[in-house]
Amino acid sequence: MTDADGSLRTDRLRVRPMADGDFDALLQGLQDPDRPWADGYPLDESLVSAAMVQARRADAGGCDVAPWTQYQVILEGEDVVVGDLTFLEPPDDDRVALVTFGIAPSRRRQGFATEMLDALVRWARERPDIRGLRADTDLVNPASHGVLRAAGLRVVQDDGDRQLYELRWERPERVPRAAVGGA
């Protein structure tokens, strides 16, 4: 499910972490000729997310922030970028990370967002450093609400025009061997 480069794979998608050059190209509107963008990509939110990840990297002294970065969602059969997924914030003290995602308008209603988010949830559940995901969306975006609910996230806060979704899972605490079975 996860490749050596940190990509998540599904039947139809590769969710690939963006490299340094990818951020620069995205923010400058330059697509890779070997991996074209679907019509309507990048979204405005893609650019905002990329700038936020770049700022976080700068705050970290230019250090890599992987895996808490921006990922491009690539349709395997066509090798075309159809959207992205971004960790807007790495896991907090409760080990819950804030994510956002978007699919190019020309590629919506094909299940890509649901497939990508399902893969993210499976990946996150396997990691010891994260125990939950959260995302928020505008009330006027019913498709995103449906994707979040389908991935198991539930509304935990309603601000009138936006709702915050969250999914948490508990990890059993490891019990030291000496404490098991008494004396």
Description:
It is a single chain. This protein is an alpha+beta fold and 183 residues long. The chain has 4 helices and 8 strands; from the N terminus they run ββααβββαβαββ. A hairpin with a 4-residue loop joins β3 (70-75) and β4. α3 packs parallel to α4 (142-150). The radius of gyration is 18 Å and the shape is globular. The mean pLDDT is 90.
Which helices and strands occur, and which strands form pairs?
Layout lengths: L7 E2 L3 E5 L2 H9 L15 H16 L10 E6 L4 E10 L6 E8 L8 H14 L6 E7 L3 H9 L3 E5 L3 E7 L15
Helix pairs in contact: 3-4
Brief digest:
The protein is an alpha+beta fold and 183 residues long. The chain has helices at 20-28, 44-59, 112-125, 142-150, and strands at 8-9, 13-17, 70-75, 80-89, 96-103, 132-138, 154-158, 162-168. 26% of the residues lie in helices and 27% in strands.
Topology as a string of helices (H) and strands (E): EEHHEEEHEHEE
Q: Taking strands numbered 1, 2, ... along the chain, how are they ordered across the largest sheet?
A: 1-2-3-4-5-6-8-7
Number of strands: 8
Q: Determine the N-to-C terminus distance.
A: 42 Å
What is the number of helices?
4
Question: Helical residue percent?
Answer: 25-40%
Strand content: 25-35%
Low-confidence parts: none
**What's the gyration radius in Å?**
18 Å
Would you tell me the structural class of the helices and strands? alpha+beta
Keywords:
globular; 183 residues; eight-stranded mixed beta sheet; 8 strands; alpha+beta
